[in-house]
Amino acid sequence: MSREKEWIDRLEEEKELKQEEWEALFQYWLDHEDKELLSYVCEKGKRVKEETFGNKVYIRGLIEFTSYCKNDCYYCGLRKSNKEAERYRLDEETILDCCEKGYELGFRTFVLQGGEDFFFTADRIGELVRKIKGKFPDCAVTLSEGERDFDTYKAWFDAGADRYLLRHETADEAHYRLLHPDSLSLENRKECLRNLKKIGYQTGCGIMVGSPGQTARCLAEDMVFMKELHPEMVGLGPFIPQHATPFADQKPGTLEETLFILALVRLMLPKVLLPATTALGTIHPEGRELGILSGANVVMPNLSPSDVRKKYLLYDNKIATGAEAAEALDSLRERMKAIGCEIAVDRGDSPEL
Ligand code: SAH
Ligand code: SF4
Question: Would you say the CB of residue 71 lies under 6 angstroms from ligand 2?
Fold first, then answer.
């Protein structure tokens, strides 16, 4: 048996590898893109997922409530220096309306995601969360709106928010610097994640696969960081260049590498909630299905009003920018059925709570 397969077997058994082993495994992957090793790990990822979650796939209704952002991350189409980006904010009524529609369709988690837009003050978001939880008490609210201070996160949690998604993007200091301007720091990002955990959120971190400058060493650091943080969720999708950013001409992350890492994360954190992301569905027509077959167990259909979807362009060619939520959900249900999976209707909390 190859050294790489032995590591994967041991990962399944012990749920961890040493940083040097991770690095050598990723280096081997980057050098060979070994398809046989990929199926070996994806097969295991799928099996481990089924041991906890069976054939259930959880759905989260994504509401992209603002495309304004005060940050300037080099990879992202919403960065403030992108003068081409069309900016919008949804008002409270529209957001509640999206939840209402989503609720009727069977969604029991709403994910409010946006750029870092301080028009949405701590109070405004707190009030919004309170209203959503008041109207839909059986639903979970996930927030994903970037970095705020401890007290703000705490206030939102006290208002009823259940979960928070904040990808760490990379656990490697030099790589973080390559992806972000000086106003942002890995130190603060990690601090935010630790605060979220401390407050009691089901917390999600994550990375873009194949982001510019990502090496085997960065990925090894990511795995070690994720093991240490022990997140309830991990958001992981391919980097996709956006034409109006400094990374317009960079290569996108690949389907294969994303599946490889999804499966490895499943083996390391068997109970984690792991979305097959929209970005994965964007780089390959069956990306999300393949993600589910490699260990992912969540999908996040878009509940934003269709007229704003074309304006929330983190990256190019994002899928389903025109589709209505209901129609997209029907097609998703069919797609999941075709691979033997069933969409769950409960909130789908982390099984480790
Ligand atoms: N502003 C918040 C949430 C919105 S961005 C935040 O930054 O946390 C959500 C995620 O989109 C980011 O964490 C990043 O990982 C991803 N993203 C941004 N630009 C991308 C790109 N070009 N390709 C793939 N994913 C991207
Ligand atoms: Fe803003 Fe998030 Fe995009 Fe960075 S990744 S520019 S914080 S929306």
Answer: yes
